[in-house]
Amino acid sequence: MIARTLIRSQPFIRAFATHAGPNTALPAALHLKTGQSFHGRSFGAPRSIFGETVFSTSITSYTESMTDPSYRNQILVFTTPLIGNYGVPSNKAPIDSQDVGVVLESEGIQCSAIVVADVAEKFSHHAAVESLTSWCRRFNVPGITGVDTREVTRLLRDQGTTLGRLAVGVDASAPAPTPEQYWDPSIENLVDQVSTKVPYHLNPDGDIRIAVLDFGAKANILRSLIRRNAAVTVLPWNFDFNSIRDQYDGLFLTNGPGDPSHCMEAVLKLRETLQMWGKPIFGICMGHQVIGMAAGLEAYRMTFGNRGHNQPVLALASSGSIKAGRVYVTSQNHQYALKLTDPFPTGWEPFFINCNDSSVEGIKSTEDTGKKVWGVQFHPESAGGPLDTMEMFTDFLGECRAHRLTLPMAATTVKLTSSHKKYAAPRFPEISVSA
């Protein structure tokens, strides 16, 4: 009886949803470099853009996906039909031992455009403050709705990630661009665009000091560290960590967008760190690729990439909370991966492998090296996605604390020289850095 009453009352409840605003949609078209075009109507910013067309199979968390720096300059196609139904929350949070100044994964939208089957004209959620349409308009990001995203996804699955053009307004009726007119964002160093420009501290009173190389960090990575009482110093991606490494108990390398070959400066510096430094190191996504390249592995561009919250990975080795032989469901967003080679570089072993495409999902240092170094292609911090591997953060910090107990008392002050302050403002709210 109660269930029937709730079902009958849904139209009444839905009437209290907030309307997205007046419909002033312009015609829009999505053109792919491979020759296909899809027509619909625009929402968000009334402008045309080029980008790399990719799709995500995530069912929820469109706000987290759109603010993930790893989607920089990408036209993001959502396979879930209805997008925008729960609106967009306020993106402000405190800066303390529990949070890093933002609710979502960065301060603004990172993808260049979005493609949806049906954008919600009404949204309803207790935390929502604006619609997806107005949010996109505020960050000058265009979108297209009314597109058969199933067909777009099938095309991308068959032909791989494809360059695209989202044409809005009068551009929608113009001929599709010629192949040479499409712009490929992978030729640019996207990591340099999204990395912090200035070192900054989070949770300075934490009991363990962790340096973070920011290749385009999702906020929940930093949040996952400080909530485990780590004092975090976030550094630019090409920062000379070796000049200050002895002041820290561990090094973390974050996710980031684009081609890892643009990060060779970081690879070479990390190679020295791996040779000369014995403290724990953990890398995620781009950070994992940088670790692998520093170890001697080669990175390659995947045909499709893996993007979504449902990627199964098989653990090939045990470490901390991870048990060999178990399958873990993970959140992923990457176009590049490390090549699986035989033999593996001396001192290294595969950690995870993808159950769908057999790509390398993780590497680790071998026990005989005496080092504690891990890299994973997936996102243990989720946001959004499953929490199967979240305890890897606890494992990493546990190893940092255990290693610290074997050493003399560490310095209590992190010192950054004046030359380390030459960078511009960070992507997250700036924390003062002591001289």
From TrEMBL:
Gene Ontology BP terms: 'de novo' pyrimidine nucleobase biosynthetic process; glutamine metabolic process; L-arginine biosynthetic process
A single Gene Ontology CC term: cytoplasm
Domain of life, source organism: Eukaryota
Pathway assignment: Amino-acid biosynthesis; L-arginine biosynthesis; carbamoyl phosphate from bicarbonate: step 1/1
Record Pfam families: CPSase_sm_chain (PF00988), GATase (PF00117)
GO molecular function, one term: ATP binding
Keyword Heme: no
Subunit structure: Heterodimer composed of 2 chains; the small (or glutamine) chain promotes the hydrolysis of glutamine to ammonia, which is used by the large (or ammonia) chain to synthesize carbamoyl phosphate.
PANTHER family cross-referenced by the UniProt entry: CARBAMOYL-PHOSPHATE SYNTHASE SMALL CHAIN, MULTIFUNCTIONAL TRYPTOPHAN BIOSYNTHESIS PROTEIN-RELATED
HAMAP family: CPSase_S_chain
Protein name: Carbamoyl phosphate synthase arginine-specific small chain
UniProt source species: Boletus reticuloceps
